[in-house]
Fold:
Amino acid sequence: MKPDPRFVSQPKSFWANVRVIGQEAGYTKRTRGSRQQQSAGGRIKVPDVPEMLKAMTTLGLASSHIADEAGNVSKTGRMLQAYFKCRADILNDYVEPRLMDRERAKSLFEKLFAELKPACPLPMNKQKREKKAKAFFTGIVNMLIEAHSEGLACDFDPRKLTVVTRDRMPLRTMARRFDGAFPSLMDPIAVWEIKEYYNTKTFGSRVADAVYESLLDGMELRELREHEDVSVKHFLMIDDHYTWWECGRSYLCRLIDMLHMGYVDEVLFGYEVVERLPKNVRQWVQIARSRQD
Structure:
């Protein structure tokens, strides 16, 4: 998923409002029924203007930038309304159906394995005993990248920090290790993080950490682009319906915010890797070929 162009040029103050309102008004709209039914059936909330104003009042903040005392909504207020609706539509109607559970991911993994006959690494997950199995989502990503990279090199298992150079000297070294880089960790065209959480029964702090880690990566890569005119494409790929949708919808909202703030080029949700990743890899290959010319 790529960002909606309407929101990519918004100032940081706009995103400060988005976060404040989300914190006070809430991210989800509960459905009636048991707590379990509410968790599974909740939809992403679209705060209306009164709720936005109430959020500001609760925090002791001014609200005139959203609407005046007569109820006339400002340009900022209308943009906030449009963004909250856009975010909710994306998550409710596009993202949620594409998030896979373990069985769906396993079926897709086996289908691609039979079709593509991959030579790329297909790592195991980090779980133990009966839960130990292939890391299905990571395997799907690796197979798709290999199948469309036209034989070019790719680092599917980086164990070092990414380095960007100029005149054969280090220009930037990233703070964290990525899960993959094309064609290599040295002056990559694209880097990515993969977050799959099949078999988890609770929403752990590592999911929140995944969001904040990706934000750090994005801030570093954006600084590189803005100050050195060097662009490295940054992708985040996530999956598991239970973890992200039933437990972590507020964090999905933050991922969509991060996408529109320009800290990640694309976030690919579950099955979306099949729909979007081949096209992206072909674009990476074109850039790699142009560098060779």
Remarks:
- The first helix runs from residue 12 to 25.
- The CA atoms of residues 163 and 169 lie 10 Å apart.
